[in-house]
Amino acid sequence: MARDLRNFLRAYMEFTADTEPSDAFHFWTAVTIIGAVTKKQVYLDMNYFHVYPNFYTFLVGPSGSRKSVATAIGVSIANQAEIRKSSNKMTAAALIKDLSDSVEKRIIGTEIEFVTPLLIYSSELGVLMGPDAYTSGLIADLTDLWDWPDKPWEKKTISRGTDTIMNPFVSFLGATTVKQLKTSIPEAAVGQGFTSRVIFVWSGGRRKRSPIPEWGSGHEMLERNLVKDLKKIGQLKGIFQFSKDGLSLYKSHYMERPEPEDEFEDDRLQGYSSRKDIHMLKIAMVLSLADKDELIITERDMAGAIDAIKWLDRGLPNILAEHGQTTAADSVNKVFKQIEAATRKVGYISDIELSSKSYHYALGQEYDMIIQTLSKIGAIEEVIGRDPRTGKIGKLYRSRDSEFMKKSVVRVTKKIEEE
After folding, report:
1. Which of 115, 152, 326, 362 is the most buried (most CB within 10 A)?
2. Model confidence over 42-87: pLDDT tens digits?
3. Longest pairwise C-alpha distance within the chain
4. How many CB atoms lie within 10 A of CB 228?
5. Residue 415 DSSP SS3
6. Helix (H, G, I), strand (E, B), or coil: what is residue 261?
7. Residue 110 — pLDDT band, cuts 50, 70, 90?
8. Is 383 strand, coil or helix?
9. CA torsion 124→128→131→137, rounded to 10°?
């Protein structure tokens, strides 16, 4: 079928170009809604199992990084394309109800089949998934549903007996800060089944300041075409195939990549590492869907997917920084942030000023040990000199390693821009 746009992702990035959220947030929002609109009608046959292009995507960044702006734009497009969306408050019972209300009937030739597509959406993940999400069974259910095969899903409850959901297909788009994420996902659960299925997208801030983003007839036309093409993508049906070069690249990458237990120093990422190939195949399918109706994963699609995974890996240390972190490590980060902020503002911070700002979480020997640690690892520079503002001689600190807290905004890599 003829499309109105040459490439959905490229057009989406153009549509959002004058908004403040990072390229990363916009790109992964678009990837998620493309996957959600397919409604389990396209897949990759891996002989013993099928891979579907649904995603659990969490946009993670500090307050003010415009996460909810990015998701709201994508969800608006999804709503216009009639993608079924969940309620605002998610519990295990609410999930069952939302799924029960989302069943669709399809007639294929002389056969009738049912599918249950649902996009779970939250601009504030901490509101949607409270601290009891794990104990209530909600996370266990979402873990099951991420890669549920072509068959009914049954959920046994004490009050209602057994609820049966026909052929579920669940996608998830959420936004959160690192602190909110720590509340929603207990430390003991990091690296376990659910989190290994999530695409965590980090961005450290806005890509630009845009007091009033541009909007005109060109934007209106682009929005209409995005909606129309998303609907057309949702009409595609069938099994993905690899091109010869696409298959060759996938196999060589699969065989050459590190074993999950060897890839990351943080052993909590072993589960994620073991599923990276599945994530990569899902991304390759979406890159193909964004570009053409033919269900073919080309070498270009595969290369873009590989690059996208590498891009995600760069942000993981920022996202996991506070999970499993000791109180002492948390204090080190807080002191460094004070030094870094002062360095950006006036070029330094005095020991007197820093200790007065840090006394409520670091006192005496603990404070001294934090300064010693930051100096030893090269994160800060310590000198004896005169404070230009007070005239007093004493210790002055400057930030040296801007990557210590990895605050830079994640940008789209070249291969993804080309896709």
Report:
1. 362
2. 999 999 999 999 999 999 998 889 999 999 999 999 999 999 998 6
3. 88
4. 15
5. helix
6. helix
7. confident
8. strand
9. -150
Contact (Cβ atoms closer than 8 angstroms) between residue 181 and residue 51: no
Residue 195 · residue 187 · CB < 8 Å? no
Separation of first and last alpha carbons in the chain: 20
Q: How many residues does the chain have?
A: 419
R_g over Cα of the chain: 24
Which has the closest alpha carbon to 290: 299, 281, 301, 302? 301
Global pTM reads 0.80
Q: Rounded distance, CA 278 to CA 276, Å? A: 5
Between CA 307 and CA 206, with CA 5 as vertex, the angle to 5 degrees is: 50
Assigned token pair, 16: 């959002």
Tokens at 64, concatenated: 């003010």
Q: Give the whole-angstrom CA distance, residue 311 versus residue 402.
A: 19
For residue 122, give the amino acid letter.
S
**Which is nearest to 62 in space by CA: 2, 16, 3, 21?**
21
Token pair of 239, please?
């099994």
183: its two tokens: 């509340």
Helix (H) or strand (E) holding 299: helix 299-320
Instruction: Report the candidate in 138, 230, 238, 235 with the shortest Cα–Cα distance to residue 189.
Output: 138
User: Do 139 and 202 meet the contact criterion of CB atoms below 8 Å apart?
Assistant: no
